[in-house]
Amino acid sequence: MISKTSGNIDDLKLIAFAYKMNGYPKLALRINRLILAYKPDNITSYRDVAESFLETNKKNKAWDTYEVFIQRNRESINETSFNIMFNDIERLYHSYNLKNIIGNAFVSKKKYSNNYKNETRILFEWSVPNETLLVELVNPEKQTIGLQLGSKFENSTIEEFFIDENLKGNWKLNLSILEDIKLDGYLKVTIYRKWISSEKARPETFFFSLSGATQTEYKLLNLKI
């Protein structure tokens, strides 16, 4: 059974998440900044702070947070992490009207207009780098896409997946534990609908604690597109 997460940083993340969900974004921001002080090289720490700034309507500070991470870690982060941060910046640039503020300092890969073909973005974050999970997405045509999180060799703890919103129907998100060990961490799933949109749709966030998990497979979410 999925149960309570242990570990000081994990506990702080859950507290910040609880404050955010209960309408206290400033308190969530304080805790996320504290976590960043403890884990200054961690991509998820920067992302949580940036998202908290957006929750408190400080889009310029959110932008600066992403930029600081890119500048400090560009040579050391893997391609997946860099692309995820770039996508975060791109969304902020287009959806929050930063073009007039940033100017030519940022070059977008997307040509955004009111007719932009939107997507649903799903972001997966796993808190234990050396313990391996497999997240499976099953589309309405019952085709399965697998994403691996955590690895003793690569330590990849964050992945993203874009769903073309033209593929309507029910998507299923499942989880498999690939190693016969006792897990002690959490999986965070964030769903961004209308990925680049002037509507500024807030993401849906879910925490799944795997401390003491006894099963090898779990059904996480059903997602209607």
Structure notes:
The chain has 225 residues and is an alpha+beta fold. It is 34% helix and 25% strand. It is built from six helices and eight strands. The chain has a four-stranded antiparallel sheet with strand order 4-1-6-7, covered by helices on one side. It has a four-stranded antiparallel sheet with strand order 3-2-5-8, with no helix packed on it. Helix 3 runs antiparallel to helix 4 (59-73). The longest helix has 17 residues, at 79-95. It is globular. The protein starts with 7 loop residues before the first helix and ends with a strand. Residues 1-6 have low confidence and may be disordered.
Low-confidence stretches: 1-6
Task: Report, as a whole number of angstroms, the end-to-end distance.
Answer: 28 Å
Tertiary shape: globular
The oligomeric status of these chains comes to single chain
The total of beta strands comes to 8
Mean pLDDT: 84
Strand arrangement within the widest β-sheet reads 4-1-6-7
Strand content: 15-25%
Question: Number of DSSP helices?
Answer: 6
Helix content: 25-40%
Order of helices and strands: HHHHHHEEEEEEEE
Largest sheet: 4 strands, antiparallel
How is this fold's topology laid out?
Elements: H1 8-21, H2 25-38, H3 43-55, H4 59-73, H5 79-95, H6 99-102, E1 119-126, E2 133-138, E3 144-149, E4 158-164, E5 170-177, E6 186-192, E7 204-209, E8 217-224
Antiparallel strand pairs: 1-4, 1-6, 2-3, 2-5, 5-8, 6-7
Helix pairs in contact: 1-2, 2-3, 3-4, 4-5
